[in-house]
Amino acid sequence: MKTNSTKQIILIIIVAALGYFVDIYDLVLFGVVKSESLDQIMVGADVKDLLIMNYKDNFGLNSFC
Fold first, then answer.
1. Is 20 left (phi over 0), alpha (psi -120 to 50) or beta?
2. Would residue 33 count as lying in a domain?
3. What is the Cα–Cα distance from 15 to 12, expressed in whole angstroms?
4. 47 is in which domain, residue-wise?
5. pLDDT tens digit sequence for 42-57
């Protein structure tokens, strides 16, 4: 029979695993809808801002800025 502390540890591991999967799903979903959602957010942006954003995205510079 499992003790109370063993049940708590299993529950903590399950909750942490679910949180991990939610985070991974969020990262994947953002990668899929990123350009459409940014276009909707940046309605008033001029062409120069959009070109800079595309340049950063294509060359992986978003992590540096």
1. alpha
2. yes
3. 5
4. 4-58
5. 676 666 666 666 666 6
- Report the Cα–Cα distance between both ends of the chain, in Å, rounded: 54
Single pTM value for the model: 0.49
Residue 26 CA, distance from chain mean position: 4
Q: Is the pLDDT of residue 1 over 90?
A: no
pLDDT reported for residue 15: 97
Please indicate, yes or no, if residue 65 is contained in any of the structural domains: no
Report whether pLDDT(28) > 80. yes
Alpha carbons 26 and 35: distance in angstroms, whole number: 15
pLDDT of residue 63: 52
Question: Looking at the 3D structure of the chain, how many domains does it have?
Answer: 1
Q: Is residue 63 part of a domain?
A: no
Handedness of CA 52, 43, 31, 14 (dihedral sign): positive
